[in-house]
Amino acid sequence: MYNLILVDDNPRDRKGIELIVKDAGFKVTASYANGSACLNALPDQECDILLSDVMMPVMNGIELAEAVSNRFPHIKVLFASAYHEFDFAKSALEVHAHDYILKPIVKDELVKALERVAGILDKEKEERSKQHQLREQLDKALPSYREQLFRELLFGSYQDGEDLRQYIDLLGITVPEQGCIRVVTLRVDDSDRDRTLEEQMLGAISIRNLIRTLPESIRPLELVQQGKHMFSAVYASEEGDVIDKVVDFTSAVSANLGLPAAFGVSGPGDSLEQLSRLYLQSITAMNTTFFNKKQTFVLYEELGEEGSTDDQTGDLQRLYRDTKQLLLYGSAQERREFLNRHIHAMGHRGDEQAVRHFASTLISIAEWVTGEVGPASASSQKAADLEVRNRIATVSHAGELLELLETFLDGCSERLTGGDQDVSGILTDKMKALMKENFHEKLSVNDVAASINYSSVHANNLFRKASGESIFEYLTKLRMEKAKELLAFSDSKIYRVAEESGYTNKSHFCLKFKDYTGMTPQEYKRSLEEKRSSKG
């Protein structure tokens, strides 16, 4: 049953119309003698249909309909007008009214008009019900839409850049305008467990539940699952807060997981559009070969600008580093694969000039490395190198060039590694000296590698081969041993120890210290104090 308000300055008309309306199944909630009285009372009345005369004192029906349309758009207006007022009333129908009838009122015509307006209300009610149901479904699906949006942003597949702000608002995502964004990627290692696929899937659900039930203070902005063993968490906050939250997050997850896990943390970003870059940084940090299983938490900044290499780049500095590594420590097979990648890539593009230029550049670099690291070349050897250069200009196909360069590089490698000089030891000692002198500063693995003109990966391979540990492990050991030394002082402050050990963030330092010693800095200080007390 719909509620109706009647407006007419003729009391007898109002009474007659009211009887017809009630017989037709509508409820008359109020009646008024003019538009002004009705409009003032409407906020306190229940009204679906307004049946109004046109010509009335104080405020006529047209003025009333216009005001109702602006202030109460859900109310449907029905005009009742005399024949001589019809043209006047009709002019307002298209704008303010939904139907009209002529006076004197004929019962059947009024009932039909009311039924037409009721039909409009029925359709609107049905549409509102559908929209409400859809809204409920959307509300239930919002978490999935949120995760999907972040998945696309992380993987770089989101295309509608102009609509991103609308999605963010719709999904209720709050990102500080001047804040910091980081991505944490977690990989769980359950390789030692013989589990069925169902058990693995149940395990992934338990990890999601664990993360989603963390205290709100350390819960990520969004969690994206990638398979059964890997998850990425997006954090957004102020710079200091986000690192603290990430450290607390990794500690809480590790404590409750019951499985070994590795955490890679990206560098900082300032917008969601940068998530794909941050995600790759977190993957690099997590997957880097610089860390053994004792290192469960890796900041991308600790790797420097390079966390991985791409041997297909034409960058001269990278080519120098790769060539140096291959000559000193690469196998013949690795050198062959290296040449194949470069020359075949250029050959497929049909760039013969680029191939010859690459070959000439490679020879120059090999000669440079040989002169820099190895013993002085005899004049006969220099002549042989010149002969190789001359032959580059005359080779007719890529296969011949590959064979020529392969033989040349193998010869250079044999000269370098066959001498008495321990190149690996010399370069490792140089890196160790740099770390001992600068470990308390913001020193990354890439900084150490750059000191010997090597890429991060190649320098790390050399260092591990010579010392049995990675660059990062050695750097961490220097910092932790210094921290232990400083903590032995009874008046030492944790934040000061962190800074003097090369860590700008106290929480990060505490996590690293516990990984290294099995105790927090506070616990370590306490253990030293107890030992001193027992001796005293």
TrEMBL record:
SUPFAM superfamilies linked: CheY-like (SSF52172), Homeodomain-like (SSF46689)
CDD domains: REC_YesN-like (cd17536)
One GO process term, biological-process aspect: phosphorelay signal transduction system
InterPro entries per UniProt: CheY-like_superfamily (IPR011006), Homeodomain-like_sf (IPR009057), HTH_AraC (IPR018060), HTH_AraC-typ_CS (IPR018062), Sig_transdc_resp-reg_receiver (IPR001789)
All residue ranges annotated as the HTH araC/xylS-type domain in the record: 429-527
Modified residues (4-aspartylphosphate): 53
PROSITE patterns found in the cross-reference section: HTH_ARAC_FAMILY_1 (PS00041), HTH_ARAC_FAMILY_2 (PS01124), RESPONSE_REGULATORY (PS50110)
Keywords: DNA-binding, Phosphoprotein, Transcription, Transcription regulation
Pfam families per the UniProt record, alphabetical: HTH_18, Response_reg
Response regulatory domain: residues covered: 3-118
GO molecular function: DNA-binding transcription factor activity; sequence-specific DNA binding
Protein name per the record: AraC family transcriptional regulator
Lineage: Bacteria, Bacillati, Bacillota, Bacilli, Bacillales
